[in-house]
Design brief:
The protein has a domain of 185 residues: Protein Transport Mog1p, Chain A (3-Layer(aba) Sandwich), CATH 3.40.1000. The longest helix has 22 residues. Helices cover 19% and strands 36% of the residues. The strands form five sheets. A seven-stranded antiparallel beta sheet has the order 15-16-19-23-22-21-20, sandwiched between helices. The protein has 470 residues and is an alpha+beta fold.
């Protein structure tokens, strides 16, 4: 059994929180109704008829259309319930980050609470003495906010202002059917309250956590805002957008809000010290990671290349791809990459939860053994262990020669501890076969934000699934 070396001299992280990154600009609420094209004469030749036929089946890009009257109605009716949430460092007058939130009322509760994303308020949760939160209401009122409850797994938080009363929005726990008209509200890029119009496309099938795919703009600053159905009910909470992709946004289903409201009894920093708040975050991350590990198979699905049987389908949620690079006449490399996307945003700039692996199969063509060995070592050294020193301690590594099933390998096992969360570790493993002078296998495994023993158990299963048959 491999020993994982651990850095035990870890210190607290520096506290800084950049604002949410921006994306493409959304449609502003003051825009007018959609335009129609001017009428054209009917074409009188076959080529023109073909062009017209193609044009008729192309749907307009919703992001380029002005908002409908329905969008304006949704905006007008929900406007008073939505607030901007701003975070300030120390006594600074300018905000360090901002997002959105909206008023709700739990069953049997008489006070108004505000729902937002955990990642919007995470710096205030982790550094309560350095950061303060404030709201800006639609009518311009401002005041202080306090965090009452957090759900890191679903990226939700409950905040409250003692002096603020807002009309609560109605929650819808049913997932919208694919194709339902939907709307998203929030405060993008400090541009004021904005609504975007799009389509709800049901739950994302490949996502480990429940996320609803929203085909509409969700821009930086709209995180935590309400996602509304055609009747004005909140079916979810804006959470993220895929950068570099147009109109690919995600929404946390509203059914996760009610359980969190039940825990919003007092301010988080009143019930917990900063250290206890960080332990609460770490405990939620580890609970999530336990579910991820539970989804992995005791005997993972494998793929065989050049005699090597390697773990690939480690979970029903794993996504894999294979590419081949035969551009070098002296060397060919085939790569298999797999991942379980179970990412959690723990604090600004820090995400954990994913499990990623990559196998490289190298075949030498007219390379001498020493040249091939040099190439193998160069490829293995390219493995990048990501992570800022701000959040994690340096890796501690152990290198060993290990006899696996049918072949010997050089195995490097590394671990590093998180500075704020003493129970969380990154575990990285690199396996390099040493049994052939013309073929080689390099395997890389990366676990982020796991309990050390759980990570070690997974590594043993991972290595045990490898086999070479001559």
């Amino acid at each position: 059994m491999l020993t994982l070396l651990i850095c035990m001299t870890c210190t607290s992280a520096v506290n800084s929180a950049p604002a949410e990154s921006s994306a493409a600009a959304s449609v502003d609420s003051s825009s007018s109704t959609s335009n129609t094209d001017a009428a054209r004469d009917e074409p009188n030749n076959d080529e023109a008829s073909s062009e017209t036929s193609v044009a008729e089946i192309i749907e307009p890009d919703l992001s380029q259309l002005e908002p409908s009257s329905a969008a304006r109605t949704r905006l007008d009716r929900a406007r008073e319930s939505v607030v901007q949430i701003r975070g300030f460092y120390g006594d600074a007058a300018s905000s360090a980050f901002h997002g959105s939130g909206f008023a709700v009322r739990g069953e049997g509760q008489n006070e108004d609470l505000i729902v937002t994303n955990y990642h919007v308020v995470s710096e205030a949760v982790l550094y309560p003495r350095q950061y303060r939160l404030e709201y800006v209401a639609a009518d311009g009122r401002t005041g202080k906010l306090q965090v009452y409850a957090i759900d890191v797994k679903n990226d939700l938080a409950i905040v409250k202002a003692d002096d603020l009363r807002l009309p609560p929005l109605r929650l819808r726990v049913q997932i919208p059917s694919q194709g339902e008209r939907a709307y998203s509200m929030g405060f993008p890029l400090n541009l004021g309250l904005t609504i975007t119009e799009g389509v709800a496309n049901g739950l994302v099938a490949s996502s480990f956590e429940q996320r609803i795919h929203y085909t509409g703009a969700i821009n930086g600053g709209m995180s935590g805002g309400p996602a509304l159905d055609a009747g004005g009910a909140v079916y979810g909470v804006n959470v993220s957008v895929v950068t570099g992709r147009q109109l690919v946004g995600f929404v946390v289903p509203a059914k996760h809000i009610a359980p969190l409201l039940a825990h919003a009894r007092e301010p988080l920093n009143r019930a917990n010290s900063p250290r206890q708040a960080r332990e609460l975050v770490a405990a939620q991350v580890l609970a999530h990671q336990g579910i991820v590990f539970a989804s992995t198979r005791q005997k993972p699905g494998t793929q065989t290349l050049s005699g090597y049987t390697l773990p690939t389908q480690i979970s029903p949620y794993a996504e894999c791809s294979t590419i081949n690079t035969d551009t070098n006449p002296k060397l060919s490399i085939e790569k298999i990459s797999c991942s379980i996307r179970a990412r959690l945003r723990v604090q600004a700039g820090l995400e954990v939860g994913d499990i990623t692996l990559q196998h490289q199969l190298l075949r030498a063509h007219n390379l001498r053994p020493l040249q091939f060995t040099h190439t193998i070592n160069r490829e293995a050294a390219r493995y990048a262990r990501h992570g800022s020193d701000k959040y994690v301690a340096p890796f501690a590594c152990e290198n060993a020669l290990v006899s696996l099933d049918g072949f010997d390998a050089r195995v490097s096992t590394c671990a590093r501890q998180y500075r704020l969360f003493a129970d969380l570790y990154d575990v990285a493993v690199v396996v390099v076969s040493i049994n052939d002078t013309q073929h080689a296998m390099i395997s890389q495994l990366d676990l982020r934000g796991v309990a050390l023993e759980s990570g070690a158990q997974f590594v043993r299963r991972y290595l045990g699934a490898m086999r070479w048959t001559p």
